[in-house]
Amino acid sequence: MLEKLTMYLAFPFVRYALIVGVLIALCSSLLGVTLVLKRYSYIGDGLSHVAFGALAIASVLNLTNKMIIILPVTVLSAILLLKNGTNTKVKGDAAIAMISVGALAFGYLLMNIFPTSSNVSGDVCTTLFGSTSILTLTKEEVWISGVLSVVVVFIFIFLYNRIFAVTFDTNFANAVGTNVDFYNLLIATITAVIIVLAMNLVGSLLISALVIFPALSAMSVLKSFRAVTFFSAVVSVVCAFLGIIISILAGTPVGSTIVAVDVVLFAVCHVIGKIRG
Amino acid sequence: MAILTVRNLAVGYDRRSVLENIDFEISAGDYFCIVGENGSGKTTLMKTILGLISPVSGMIEYGDNLERKQIGYLPQQTDAQRDFPASVYEIVLSGCQNGLGNRFFYSSKQKALALKQIDKMGLTNLKNRCYRELSGGQQQRVLLARALCATSRVLLLDEPVSGLDPQMTEEMYQLIHGLNEEGLTIIMISHDLDNVKKYANKIYGVPSEGSNQEGGMQVC
Fold it and tell me: Would residue B76 count as lying in a domain?
Protein backbone atom coordinates (compact mmCIF):
# COMPACT_ATOMS: atom_id res chain seq x y z
CA MET A 1 0.00 0.00 0.00
CA LEU A 2 2.79 2.34 1.00
CA GLU A 3 4.63 1.46 -2.20
CA LYS A 4 1.61 2.33 -4.26
CA LEU A 5 1.33 5.63 -2.43
CA THR A 6 4.99 6.59 -2.93
CA MET A 7 4.67 5.67 -6.57
CA TYR A 8 1.69 7.97 -7.02
CA LEU A 9 3.25 10.76 -4.99
CA ALA A 10 6.16 10.77 -7.44
CA PHE A 11 3.79 12.28 -10.03
CA PRO A 12 3.66 16.06 -9.80
CA PHE A 13 -0.09 16.15 -10.55
CA VAL A 14 -0.82 14.02 -7.48
CA ARG A 15 1.23 16.35 -5.30
CA TYR A 16 -0.55 19.37 -6.81
CA ALA A 17 -3.91 17.80 -6.05
CA LEU A 18 -2.91 17.22 -2.43
CA ILE A 19 -1.65 20.78 -1.93
CA VAL A 20 -4.64 22.48 -3.57
CA GLY A 21 -7.12 20.11 -1.93
CA VAL A 22 -5.82 20.79 1.56
CA LEU A 23 -5.65 24.58 1.00
CA ILE A 24 -9.20 24.84 -0.32
CA ALA A 25 -10.50 22.65 2.47
CA LEU A 26 -8.82 25.00 4.95
CA CYS A 27 -10.36 28.17 3.47
CA SER A 28 -13.85 26.77 3.03
CA SER A 29 -13.98 25.51 6.60
CA LEU A 30 -12.93 28.90 8.02
CA LEU A 31 -15.77 30.60 6.19
CA GLY A 32 -18.11 27.69 6.87
CA VAL A 33 -18.36 28.50 10.57
CA THR A 34 -19.58 32.03 9.83
CA LEU A 35 -21.92 30.95 7.03
CA VAL A 36 -23.56 28.16 9.03
CA LEU A 37 -24.07 30.47 12.02
CA LYS A 38 -25.51 33.23 9.84
CA ARG A 39 -27.99 30.63 8.53
CA TYR A 40 -26.43 30.60 5.07
CA SER A 41 -25.45 26.92 4.86
CA TYR A 42 -27.00 26.65 1.45
CA ILE A 43 -25.19 29.58 -0.08
CA GLY A 44 -22.34 27.27 -1.10
CA ASP A 45 -24.77 25.14 -3.05
CA GLY A 46 -26.49 28.12 -4.66
CA LEU A 47 -23.28 29.87 -5.66
CA SER A 48 -21.72 26.71 -7.04
CA HIS A 49 -24.70 26.34 -9.36
CA VAL A 50 -24.30 29.94 -10.42
CA ALA A 51 -20.66 29.18 -11.15
CA PHE A 52 -21.81 26.15 -13.16
CA GLY A 53 -24.18 28.33 -15.20
CA ALA A 54 -21.42 30.88 -15.78
CA LEU A 55 -19.09 28.09 -16.85
CA ALA A 56 -21.66 26.96 -19.42
CA ILE A 57 -21.83 30.49 -20.84
CA ALA A 58 -18.04 30.69 -20.95
CA SER A 59 -17.84 27.34 -22.77
CA VAL A 60 -20.45 28.38 -25.32
CA LEU A 61 -18.58 31.64 -25.96
CA ASN A 62 -15.45 29.48 -26.37
CA LEU A 63 -13.35 31.56 -24.01
CA THR A 64 -9.87 30.29 -23.21
CA ASN A 65 -9.86 31.89 -19.77
CA LYS A 66 -13.27 30.96 -18.36
CA MET A 67 -12.55 32.70 -15.03
CA ILE A 68 -13.21 36.09 -16.68
CA ILE A 69 -16.91 35.25 -16.64
CA ILE A 70 -17.23 32.77 -13.78
CA LEU A 71 -15.60 34.86 -11.05
CA PRO A 72 -17.46 38.18 -11.53
CA VAL A 73 -20.84 36.49 -11.97
CA THR A 74 -20.40 34.39 -8.83
CA VAL A 75 -19.10 37.29 -6.74
CA LEU A 76 -22.03 39.43 -7.85
CA SER A 77 -24.56 36.73 -6.94
CA ALA A 78 -22.91 36.25 -3.54
CA ILE A 79 -23.13 39.95 -2.80
CA LEU A 80 -26.79 40.10 -3.81
CA LEU A 81 -27.68 37.05 -1.72
CA LEU A 82 -25.79 37.99 1.44
CA LYS A 83 -26.55 41.69 1.31
CA ASN A 84 -30.30 41.47 1.12
CA GLY A 85 -30.62 38.79 3.75
CA THR A 86 -34.00 38.84 5.38
CA ASN A 87 -35.15 42.32 4.43
CA THR A 88 -36.39 41.64 0.94
CA LYS A 89 -39.61 40.29 -0.47
CA VAL A 90 -37.90 37.04 -1.44
CA LYS A 91 -36.45 35.66 1.80
CA GLY A 92 -32.84 34.48 2.05
CA ASP A 93 -33.42 30.74 1.67
CA ALA A 94 -35.96 31.15 -1.14
CA ALA A 95 -33.63 33.51 -2.98
CA ILE A 96 -30.80 30.99 -2.76
CA ALA A 97 -33.04 28.15 -3.93
CA MET A 98 -34.30 30.26 -6.84
CA ILE A 99 -30.86 31.32 -8.08
CA SER A 100 -29.42 27.86 -7.49
CA VAL A 101 -31.99 25.88 -9.45
CA GLY A 102 -32.36 28.55 -12.11
CA ALA A 103 -28.64 28.74 -12.83
CA LEU A 104 -28.30 24.95 -12.88
CA ALA A 105 -31.14 24.52 -15.39
CA PHE A 106 -29.96 27.41 -17.53
CA GLY A 107 -26.39 26.10 -17.62
CA TYR A 108 -27.47 22.59 -18.59
CA LEU A 109 -29.79 24.01 -21.26
CA LEU A 110 -26.96 26.05 -22.78
CA MET A 111 -24.59 23.10 -22.80
CA ASN A 112 -27.17 21.04 -24.66
CA ILE A 113 -28.17 23.66 -27.23
CA PHE A 114 -24.57 24.59 -28.02
CA PRO A 115 -22.62 21.40 -27.35
CA THR A 116 -18.87 22.01 -27.27
CA SER A 117 -17.98 18.33 -27.37
CA SER A 118 -19.67 15.09 -28.39
CA ASN A 119 -20.09 13.96 -24.81
CA VAL A 120 -22.31 16.57 -23.13
CA SER A 121 -23.46 14.43 -20.23
CA GLY A 122 -19.85 13.47 -19.50
CA ASP A 123 -18.89 17.16 -19.41
CA VAL A 124 -21.77 18.00 -17.12
CA CYS A 125 -20.92 15.14 -14.81
CA THR A 126 -17.31 16.29 -14.61
CA THR A 127 -18.28 19.86 -13.76
CA LEU A 128 -20.85 18.86 -11.19
CA PHE A 129 -18.87 16.16 -9.44
CA GLY A 130 -15.33 17.28 -10.29
CA SER A 131 -14.33 13.73 -11.09
CA THR A 132 -11.07 14.42 -12.87
CA SER A 133 -10.33 18.12 -12.83
CA ILE A 134 -8.25 18.02 -9.67
CA LEU A 135 -5.82 15.65 -11.38
CA THR A 136 -5.30 17.98 -14.33
CA LEU A 137 -4.22 21.06 -12.37
CA THR A 138 -1.40 23.10 -13.83
CA LYS A 139 1.45 24.62 -11.87
CA GLU A 140 -0.08 28.10 -12.30
CA GLU A 141 -3.39 26.97 -10.83
CA VAL A 142 -1.56 25.55 -7.82
CA TRP A 143 0.15 28.91 -7.31
CA ILE A 144 -3.11 30.84 -7.64
CA SER A 145 -4.81 28.58 -5.10
CA GLY A 146 -1.84 28.91 -2.78
CA VAL A 147 -1.73 32.70 -2.90
CA LEU A 148 -5.50 33.06 -2.50
CA SER A 149 -5.55 30.66 0.46
CA VAL A 150 -2.82 32.60 2.22
CA VAL A 151 -4.78 35.83 1.62
CA VAL A 152 -7.98 34.28 3.00
CA VAL A 153 -6.24 32.90 6.08
CA PHE A 154 -4.59 36.26 6.81
CA ILE A 155 -7.83 38.18 6.35
CA PHE A 156 -9.51 35.74 8.68
CA ILE A 157 -6.85 36.01 11.39
CA PHE A 158 -6.64 39.80 11.33
CA LEU A 159 -10.36 40.45 11.08
CA TYR A 160 -11.27 37.58 13.41
CA ASN A 161 -12.67 39.83 16.16
CA ARG A 162 -14.81 41.79 13.74
CA ILE A 163 -16.03 38.71 11.89
CA PHE A 164 -17.10 37.26 15.23
CA ALA A 165 -18.88 40.49 16.18
CA VAL A 166 -20.74 40.72 12.88
CA THR A 167 -21.68 37.02 12.93
CA PHE A 168 -22.95 36.97 16.49
CA ASP A 169 -24.96 40.18 16.42
CA THR A 170 -25.16 42.36 13.33
CA ASN A 171 -27.44 44.94 14.94
CA PHE A 172 -25.19 45.46 17.94
CA ALA A 173 -22.09 45.70 15.76
CA ASN A 174 -23.84 48.23 13.54
CA ALA A 175 -25.06 50.26 16.53
CA VAL A 176 -21.60 50.63 18.03
CA GLY A 177 -20.14 51.82 14.75
CA THR A 178 -18.67 48.71 13.09
CA ASN A 179 -18.98 48.91 9.32
CA VAL A 180 -21.23 45.88 8.99
CA ASP A 181 -21.94 46.34 5.28
CA PHE A 182 -18.24 46.23 4.48
CA TYR A 183 -17.65 43.01 6.41
CA ASN A 184 -20.71 41.34 4.89
CA LEU A 185 -19.45 42.34 1.46
CA LEU A 186 -16.03 40.95 2.28
CA ILE A 187 -17.47 37.65 3.53
CA ALA A 188 -19.62 37.38 0.38
CA THR A 189 -16.68 38.04 -1.93
CA ILE A 190 -14.38 35.55 -0.21
CA THR A 191 -17.16 32.95 -0.25
CA ALA A 192 -17.60 33.35 -3.99
CA VAL A 193 -13.87 33.16 -4.70
CA ILE A 194 -13.45 30.02 -2.61
CA ILE A 195 -16.42 28.36 -4.26
CA VAL A 196 -15.06 29.02 -7.73
CA LEU A 197 -11.70 27.59 -6.64
CA ALA A 198 -13.33 24.60 -4.98
CA MET A 199 -15.18 23.72 -8.18
CA ASN A 200 -11.87 22.35 -9.45
CA LEU A 201 -11.57 20.16 -6.41
CA VAL A 202 -14.90 18.57 -5.62
CA GLY A 203 -17.12 19.91 -8.40
CA SER A 204 -20.01 22.26 -7.88
CA LEU A 205 -22.44 19.81 -6.25
CA LEU A 206 -20.20 18.86 -3.36
CA ILE A 207 -18.93 22.32 -2.35
CA SER A 208 -21.65 22.76 0.25
CA ALA A 209 -20.29 19.72 2.00
CA LEU A 210 -16.83 21.28 2.29
CA VAL A 211 -18.39 24.43 3.73
CA ILE A 212 -20.82 22.94 6.25
CA PHE A 213 -19.53 19.56 7.49
CA PRO A 214 -16.33 20.66 9.28
CA ALA A 215 -18.19 23.57 10.91
CA LEU A 216 -21.04 21.34 12.06
CA SER A 217 -18.62 18.70 13.37
CA ALA A 218 -16.80 21.32 15.42
CA MET A 219 -20.02 22.88 16.71
CA SER A 220 -21.36 19.61 18.01
CA VAL A 221 -18.39 19.08 20.36
CA LEU A 222 -16.98 22.53 21.17
CA LYS A 223 -18.30 25.54 23.01
CA SER A 224 -16.35 28.65 22.14
CA PHE A 225 -16.12 30.41 18.79
CA ARG A 226 -12.34 30.33 18.75
CA ALA A 227 -12.20 26.60 19.45
CA VAL A 228 -14.91 25.88 16.87
CA THR A 229 -13.11 27.87 14.17
CA PHE A 230 -9.75 26.27 14.90
CA PHE A 231 -11.09 22.72 15.16
CA SER A 232 -13.17 22.98 11.99
CA ALA A 233 -10.06 24.07 10.06
CA VAL A 234 -8.13 21.08 11.41
CA VAL A 235 -10.99 18.67 10.71
CA SER A 236 -11.37 19.97 7.17
CA VAL A 237 -7.67 19.71 6.36
CA VAL A 238 -7.38 16.19 7.79
CA CYS A 239 -10.50 15.00 5.94
CA ALA A 240 -9.34 16.48 2.63
CA PHE A 241 -5.91 14.86 3.04
CA LEU A 242 -7.33 11.46 3.97
CA GLY A 243 -9.96 11.68 1.26
CA ILE A 244 -7.41 12.32 -1.48
CA ILE A 245 -5.09 9.54 -0.24
CA ILE A 246 -7.98 7.05 -0.05
CA SER A 247 -9.20 8.02 -3.49
CA ILE A 248 -5.73 7.39 -4.90
CA LEU A 249 -5.36 4.01 -3.21
CA ALA A 250 -8.91 2.81 -3.85
CA GLY A 251 -9.40 4.46 -7.21
CA THR A 252 -12.55 6.27 -6.10
CA PRO A 253 -13.65 9.77 -7.29
CA VAL A 254 -11.77 12.44 -5.33
CA GLY A 255 -14.60 14.85 -4.46
CA SER A 256 -17.08 12.31 -3.20
CA THR A 257 -14.40 10.48 -1.21
CA ILE A 258 -13.45 13.69 0.64
CA VAL A 259 -17.08 14.40 1.41
CA ALA A 260 -17.62 10.81 2.58
CA VAL A 261 -14.73 11.20 5.06
CA ASP A 262 -16.27 14.51 6.23
CA VAL A 263 -19.63 12.81 6.79
CA VAL A 264 -18.08 9.97 8.81
CA LEU A 265 -16.22 12.44 11.01
CA PHE A 266 -19.38 14.48 11.53
CA ALA A 267 -21.20 11.35 12.67
CA VAL A 268 -18.40 10.60 15.16
CA CYS A 269 -18.39 14.17 16.51
CA HIS A 270 -22.16 14.19 16.77
CA VAL A 271 -22.20 10.99 18.83
CA ILE A 272 -19.42 12.33 21.10
CA GLY A 273 -21.36 15.57 21.56
CA LYS A 274 -24.53 13.65 22.45
CA ILE A 275 -22.72 11.44 24.99
CA ARG A 276 -21.07 14.44 26.68
CA GLY A 277 -24.49 16.12 26.75
CA MET B 1 -28.05 69.47 29.45
CA ALA B 2 -29.87 67.24 27.01
CA ILE B 3 -27.81 64.38 25.65
CA LEU B 4 -30.46 63.40 23.13
CA THR B 5 -33.06 65.66 21.58
CA VAL B 6 -35.75 64.37 19.22
CA ARG B 7 -37.75 66.95 17.28
CA ASN B 8 -40.77 66.31 15.09
CA LEU B 9 -39.41 62.89 14.18
CA ALA B 10 -41.14 60.37 11.92
CA VAL B 11 -39.74 56.83 11.78
CA GLY B 12 -40.45 53.94 9.46
CA TYR B 13 -39.14 51.78 6.65
CA ASP B 14 -38.76 52.66 2.97
CA ARG B 15 -39.92 56.26 3.55
CA ARG B 16 -43.26 55.02 4.88
CA SER B 17 -43.62 56.19 8.46
CA VAL B 18 -45.10 53.99 11.16
CA LEU B 19 -44.79 56.60 13.90
CA GLU B 20 -44.94 60.39 13.57
CA ASN B 21 -44.68 63.65 15.55
CA ILE B 22 -42.25 62.29 18.10
CA ASP B 23 -40.80 64.93 20.43
CA PHE B 24 -38.74 64.33 23.54
CA GLU B 25 -35.57 65.26 25.33
CA ILE B 26 -33.33 63.03 27.41
CA SER B 27 -30.94 64.46 29.99
CA ALA B 28 -27.90 62.81 31.51
CA GLY B 29 -28.90 60.49 34.35
CA ASP B 30 -32.47 60.00 33.16
CA TYR B 31 -34.33 56.71 33.34
CA PHE B 32 -36.34 57.14 30.18
CA CYS B 33 -38.93 54.63 29.05
CA ILE B 34 -40.67 54.28 25.72
CA VAL B 35 -43.90 52.42 26.34
CA GLY B 36 -46.39 51.11 23.83
CA GLU B 37 -48.16 48.05 22.56
CA ASN B 38 -46.56 45.42 20.34
CA GLY B 39 -46.36 46.57 16.75
CA SER B 40 -46.69 50.25 17.64
CA GLY B 41 -43.24 51.07 16.23
CA LYS B 42 -41.18 51.15 19.43
CA THR B 43 -38.36 49.05 18.04
CA THR B 44 -38.35 51.08 14.83
CA LEU B 45 -37.95 54.24 16.92
CA MET B 46 -35.08 52.67 18.84
CA LYS B 47 -33.32 51.54 15.68
CA THR B 48 -33.63 55.07 14.32
CA ILE B 49 -32.08 56.52 17.48
CA LEU B 50 -29.18 54.07 17.05
CA GLY B 51 -28.79 55.00 13.40
CA LEU B 52 -29.54 51.48 12.14
CA ILE B 53 -32.23 52.96 9.89
CA SER B 54 -32.54 56.56 8.77
CA PRO B 55 -35.42 58.77 9.92
CA VAL B 56 -38.29 59.46 7.50
CA SER B 57 -38.28 63.10 8.57
CA GLY B 58 -37.41 65.29 11.54
CA MET B 59 -34.21 65.24 13.53
CA ILE B 60 -32.26 63.51 16.25
CA GLU B 61 -29.53 65.52 17.95
CA TYR B 62 -26.84 64.20 20.27
CA GLY B 63 -25.66 66.71 22.87
CA ASP B 64 -22.94 66.93 25.49
CA ASN B 65 -20.27 65.35 23.24
CA LEU B 66 -22.15 62.08 22.99
CA GLU B 67 -21.37 60.09 19.88
CA ARG B 68 -23.79 57.57 18.48
CA LYS B 69 -21.33 54.70 18.80
CA GLN B 70 -20.92 55.44 22.51
CA ILE B 71 -24.42 54.16 23.20
CA GLY B 72 -24.50 50.66 24.69
CA TYR B 73 -27.26 48.62 23.09
CA LEU B 74 -29.09 45.59 24.45
CA PRO B 75 -31.02 44.18 21.49
CA GLN B 76 -33.68 41.53 21.60
CA GLN B 77 -32.24 38.07 21.10
CA THR B 78 -32.35 36.50 17.68
CA ASP B 79 -32.97 32.84 16.88
CA ALA B 80 -29.47 32.46 15.49
CA GLN B 81 -27.97 33.44 18.85
CA ARG B 82 -29.75 30.79 20.89
CA ASP B 83 -27.51 27.99 19.63
CA PHE B 84 -24.40 30.04 18.97
CA PRO B 85 -21.15 28.36 20.06
CA ALA B 86 -19.44 31.21 21.88
CA SER B 87 -18.18 31.58 25.42
CA VAL B 88 -19.48 34.27 27.77
CA TYR B 89 -16.08 35.98 27.73
CA GLU B 90 -15.95 36.10 23.91
CA ILE B 91 -19.37 37.73 23.72
CA VAL B 92 -18.72 40.31 26.43
CA LEU B 93 -15.35 41.19 24.90
CA SER B 94 -17.04 41.88 21.56
CA GLY B 95 -18.68 44.84 23.32
CA CYS B 96 -15.29 46.55 23.13
CA GLN B 97 -15.35 46.59 19.32
CA ASN B 98 -16.11 50.33 19.15
CA GLY B 99 -12.76 50.92 20.87
CA LEU B 100 -10.78 48.85 18.36
CA GLY B 101 -10.20 51.77 16.02
CA ASN B 102 -7.72 50.70 13.38
CA ARG B 103 -6.30 47.88 15.44
CA PHE B 104 -7.05 44.23 14.75
CA PHE B 105 -6.93 42.76 18.25
CA TYR B 106 -8.23 43.76 21.66
CA SER B 107 -5.77 45.41 24.06
CA SER B 108 -5.13 44.05 27.54
CA LYS B 109 -6.98 47.06 28.89
CA GLN B 110 -10.09 46.09 26.94
CA LYS B 111 -9.78 42.48 28.10
CA ALA B 112 -9.60 43.72 31.69
CA LEU B 113 -12.71 45.85 31.11
CA ALA B 114 -14.60 42.81 29.81
CA LEU B 115 -13.61 40.80 32.91
CA LYS B 116 -14.69 43.68 35.13
CA GLN B 117 -18.14 43.83 33.55
CA ILE B 118 -18.49 40.04 33.75
CA ASP B 119 -17.75 40.31 37.45
CA LYS B 120 -20.19 43.19 37.88
CA MET B 121 -23.00 41.13 36.36
CA GLY B 122 -22.12 38.21 38.64
CA LEU B 123 -21.04 35.96 35.79
CA THR B 124 -17.44 35.27 36.82
CA ASN B 125 -17.96 31.55 37.41
CA LEU B 126 -19.74 31.24 34.05
CA LYS B 127 -16.98 33.07 32.16
CA ASN B 128 -15.92 30.10 30.04
CA ARG B 129 -19.35 28.53 29.70
CA CYS B 130 -21.10 28.36 26.36
CA TYR B 131 -23.76 31.01 25.78
CA ARG B 132 -26.36 28.50 24.54
CA GLU B 133 -26.19 26.52 27.81
CA LEU B 134 -27.19 29.50 29.97
CA SER B 135 -30.68 30.32 31.24
CA GLY B 136 -32.62 33.22 29.72
CA GLY B 137 -31.78 35.51 32.62
CA GLN B 138 -28.09 34.66 32.46
CA GLN B 139 -28.04 35.28 28.70
CA GLN B 140 -29.58 38.72 29.25
CA ARG B 141 -26.89 39.51 31.82
CA VAL B 142 -24.20 38.49 29.33
CA LEU B 143 -25.64 40.87 26.75
CA LEU B 144 -25.91 43.59 29.39
CA ALA B 145 -22.23 43.13 30.30
CA ARG B 146 -21.41 43.43 26.60
CA ALA B 147 -23.40 46.67 26.33
CA LEU B 148 -21.55 48.01 29.39
CA CYS B 149 -18.23 47.38 27.61
CA ALA B 150 -19.44 49.62 24.79
CA THR B 151 -20.55 52.52 26.96
CA SER B 152 -19.98 54.36 30.18
CA ARG B 153 -22.81 56.84 29.61
CA VAL B 154 -25.96 55.68 27.88
CA LEU B 155 -27.66 52.27 27.78
CA LEU B 156 -30.42 51.49 25.32
CA LEU B 157 -32.47 48.43 26.22
CA ASP B 158 -35.00 46.79 23.92
CA GLU B 159 -37.55 44.81 25.96
CA PRO B 160 -34.89 43.58 28.43
CA VAL B 161 -37.28 41.35 30.37
CA SER B 162 -39.19 39.68 27.54
CA GLY B 163 -39.28 35.93 28.00
CA LEU B 164 -38.02 36.03 31.61
CA ASP B 165 -39.93 34.55 34.57
CA PRO B 166 -41.19 36.95 37.29
CA GLN B 167 -38.21 36.42 39.59
CA MET B 168 -35.63 37.00 36.84
CA THR B 169 -37.64 39.98 35.63
CA GLU B 170 -37.38 41.55 39.08
CA GLU B 171 -33.62 40.85 39.20
CA MET B 172 -33.15 42.42 35.80
CA TYR B 173 -35.04 45.58 36.84
CA GLN B 174 -32.91 45.79 40.01
CA LEU B 175 -29.71 45.49 37.96
CA ILE B 176 -30.79 48.24 35.57
CA HIS B 177 -31.92 50.41 38.49
CA GLY B 178 -28.49 49.99 40.10
CA LEU B 179 -26.75 51.05 36.90
CA ASN B 180 -28.95 54.15 36.73
CA GLU B 181 -28.04 55.02 40.31
CA GLU B 182 -24.37 54.84 39.32
CA GLY B 183 -25.01 57.63 36.83
CA LEU B 184 -25.79 55.77 33.60
CA THR B 185 -28.55 57.19 31.45
CA ILE B 186 -31.11 54.47 30.71
CA ILE B 187 -33.35 54.44 27.66
CA MET B 188 -35.66 51.44 27.74
CA ILE B 189 -38.38 50.06 25.53
CA SER B 190 -41.12 48.12 27.25
CA HIS B 191 -44.78 47.23 27.17
CA ASP B 192 -44.82 46.53 30.89
CA LEU B 193 -46.15 49.91 32.09
CA ASP B 194 -46.78 48.82 35.71
CA ASN B 195 -43.17 47.88 36.39
CA VAL B 196 -41.75 50.74 34.39
CA LYS B 197 -43.62 53.32 36.51
CA LYS B 198 -41.71 52.17 39.61
CA TYR B 199 -38.29 53.03 38.21
CA ALA B 200 -38.51 55.51 35.33
CA ASN B 201 -38.43 59.26 35.79
CA LYS B 202 -39.72 60.00 32.30
CA ILE B 203 -42.09 57.93 30.20
CA TYR B 204 -42.87 58.42 26.56
CA GLY B 205 -46.10 56.72 25.51
CA VAL B 206 -46.30 55.60 21.91
CA PRO B 207 -49.80 56.18 20.56
CA SER B 208 -51.32 53.06 19.07
CA GLU B 209 -54.11 52.62 16.60
CA GLY B 210 -57.35 51.12 17.86
CA SER B 211 -56.85 52.04 21.50
CA ASN B 212 -57.48 55.41 23.07
CA GLN B 213 -54.09 55.54 24.72
CA GLU B 214 -52.67 59.03 24.51
CA GLY B 215 -49.19 59.44 23.12
CA GLY B 216 -46.64 61.83 24.51
CA MET B 217 -44.46 62.65 27.45
CA GLN B 218 -45.16 62.00 31.04
CA VAL B 219 -42.87 62.88 33.92
CA CYS B 220 -43.06 60.70 37.01
Answer: no
